[in-house]
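Write out the 3D structure for:
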Amino acid sequence: MGKIKLEKLLISKDRVDYWFTTTEDLQRFFKSPMHLFMQYDRCIECVPESILVIPFLGNAMQIAWLTDAEVCVDKVDSTFCRSLQRLRDAYQKMYPDCPLSGTLHAECEDNDASATEKSAQMFTGGMDAVTTFIRHADEKPLLILEYGFYQEALVGQGEYYKDAKSDRNFISDRTAATEFAQEHGTNTAFIRANYGTFINSKAIDKQFAAKMGDNFWHGLHHAMAILGAAAPIAYLEGIQTLYIASSFSVGNTYPCASDPTTDNEFRFAGTSVIHDGYEMTDQDKARAVVAYQKKINAPLPLRVCSWNDHNCCACEKCLRRMLQINAEGGDPRNFGFAYEHSVLDTTKAYLEKEIQFFTHKNIDKWGRIITRMSDNYDRLFEKEVYDYLTDFDFKKEKKHGLWRYYRENFFSIIKRKLKGIIRRG
């Protein structure tokens, strides 16, 4: 049986460093050095070690489950220890063709359930997260924002500015979340980490993605990593309920690490997690944020563009959100989308350039938006975009786009394929 052993858990005011080792068979699944860090925005020295270890376990346990390995730590919160068994069982139901086993070796420690009726939520500033805030605004939830993609080789022991792109994105997200919290009368907590980069996901995907039917980060890793990183803050602040916004809705057939059947099993000390808004479709959420923006009669900026310090208005995710807002009669410019021309011109330019990369999933999502535009035509912010899309044959244009792409990039595609054959051979 392979082993992942936490050798050192070092606490220094507002930072925790986790140094670990593995048996030789598991080394390829981690980058060197084997080190995870969590940087908080407040002192966490008074948080018990059995809680501080949760961020580490929120990353290591999934690898142990896949490889039937043992994870060894000194102590762990007893509620979280029991939660891990239920989490593994829930993920096993999600991935019946991928056996999940593995064990945790640790002394279980009871922590006082000192949580109050206070709530918190994982907050990105995106449509899902803002919808969750709207649904629980009367609770004034603590907004916890994380950036988990710092590069270990660059930031070392705290020089985050050296990873310029990550720090720029984090600071931009932090500024936006701070402004949102101030405008809505609540507070924030911020976390820097490297949970998205210290694991060699490519090596894991090579061995397990086919069985899972998904990649490791999306299918098994990210939800526990995100929630685990928040555990010390939730304990410190006496949080009873921790919300994480849904990305999908009832009827979804795509596996995802963040799901009500799994997230709702994540518990520690006096804190329980609620996967929020799963009964709402994307369009329901767009309707909620548009109605709320009109109610407060003020801009409601959304942070939609992944790993970017602004909404680019040129990617599929940005365009989809802009169209969903338009379908509910909202002006996308009131939601942080600073496009130069009209929604119609922006959409045309995007489809002309990117339609060949559309998946069946993309086509299905855009189709539902077009249906909503039809139902709500009289209230559309920009009717011309519906008039254009309703005559747009996505499947036909995708085929034309692929032919154009192959024709224009023929030699570079062949060169890339030959390089791949040479590397494998």
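The first strand starts at residue 3 and ends at 12.
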